[in-house]
Amino acid sequence: MLAALLQRLVPATPRAATSRLFSRIEVCPPAARPAWWTRAGAWLHGSHDAAVTRPDARLASVRAEFADAIADCVDDAISVVPGDVLMRINTARSLRDLWHLRPALYHVIALRHSQYEAEQRLARLNRHFPTRAPRSGFAPLDA
Q: Among 100, 135, 106, which Cα is nearest to 30's?
């Protein structure tokens, strides 16, 4: 009788949902580096002027990918939000700034298309950022 009551109170979790829970990967922001650190590294490697005058090529390509992700959403004349997000993409100074724009991108894409499409596009953009396995939440037995 007690077992039947517990079974009704605690729903059985499907195995697929449990395995998905443990295989989730977290996307992390890139490490923040001060601008002086980047300039000092370029200076030590002999490219004094290049670090100051030329924008980072990788940052420019990631910016372009972010802009392409919402390119079909910007022509929407009803909302000003996509244009604002596009401006924030173009003025991002680091990969970390772009990492923080991911929720805004998701919002714009999900409103224009669907949540599924937003997840697919962000999954493609997430390859530019470091990942890690989530913390287990279990404390070690030995203290």
A: 100
* End-to-end alpha carbon distance in the chain: 39
Amino acid code (one letter) for 41: G
pLDDT, averaged across the chain: 74
The residue to which tokens 């490219």 are assigned? 47
Q: What is the pLDDT of residues 72-129, one digit of tens each?
A: 887 655 555 677 888 999 999 999 999 999 999 999 999 999 999 999 999 999 999 8
Burial 32-41 (b: 16+ CB within 10 A, else e): eeeeeeeeee
Strand partners, 27: 131
Can you read off the two tokens belonging to residue 105? 């991108």
d(CA 32, CA 109): 27
Q: Kindly write down the DSSP assignment for every residue of 37-82, as one continuous string.
A: HHHHHHHHTT-HHHHHHSPPHHHHHHHHHHHHHTHHHHT-SS-SHH
Kind and range of the H or E run holding 27? strand 26-27
- Note whether 104 and 85 are within 8 A (CB): yes
What's the pLDDT band for 17 if we cut at 50, 70, 90?
very low
